[in-house]
Amino acid sequence: MTTADTTSIAPKAQTHNPADNSTLASNAADTNNVKADKKADALKTPAHRASSDARFEEDARDLHRILPASRKVYLEGSRPDIQVPMREISLADTPVGGTGDKDGEHNPPFYVYDTSGVYTDPNVDIDLTRGLPKLRENWIAERNDTEQLSGLSSSYGQARARDISTANLRFAHIDKPRRAKAGQNVTQMYYARRGIITPEMEYIAIRETQKQHELTDMRQHDGESFGANTPQIITPEFVRDEVAAGRAIIPNNINHPESEPMIIGRNFLVKINANIGNSALARLSMKKYLK
Q1: Per the domain annotation, does 120 fall within a domain?
Q2: Helix H segments across the chain?
Q3: Confidence (pTM)
Q4: Cα atoms in the 13 Å half-sphere on the side-chain side of 248
Q5: Residue 40: is its pLDDT beyond 70?
Q6: How many domains does the chain have?
Q7: Residue 155 class from Cβ within 10 Å (0-12 exposed, 13-18 middle, 19+ buried)?
């Protein structure tokens, strides 16, 4: 390439005209406004989105997405408000002597544990501003051993409520906290040791196997029990007895009535629970490790 060629393709120098200052300022302002809008949108939480917000609607649709070849079903307990979710999975026919439908062996649906909540139920209207349905609210209230406080009682909670920097993170539907009445104990272990079978215990029994065995082929290999003594059918009484003996726990906080009852123990589907992560109450990693 010659010197002349190099000169001919050299980039044209950009000159600045003082008369263009107003245009540049306007463009800079527009850029700043766009950045501010994006930042404000990023700080939006479900509590502050309008139902017409496209982003809100997309989030709701994503949460409501249906899993293929399956549907959500509910198994009812001894009372109408005990509705235990299961996932019914459709199975293809097994070919026997050919490829046609008439030659296949029909396989009934397979039912599995479903903890996805209402988000996978097509019959539920998902509204992130309302929060989850309070599944256990009536169960807690009918025991008549709790009371609702007038407001937050901890100094930490009160400080957070006064912190305007977290205002955009708060939801309007959060209830005032509950606590046990004087002289009362509201743990599932306390009820279990008093011989009380709670709705939570029946819910767990159905979820583990009590109702599922009627719908699913429960045949399995003997395997190694490693000391477990799990009956083929989990009954509410078995749940109560395991909790009373201290061999299992039911982590159901009275201030989280939306939580679905589940159990952790050697004789149940969930054997171990680990809570690993950061905490607003303990910033030092060593303290979290020891906890």
Answers
A1: yes
A2: 3-8, 21-42, 54-63, 137-142, 155-162, 188-193, 199-205, 236-244, 285-290
A3: 0.70
A4: 28
A5: no
A6: 1
A7: exposed
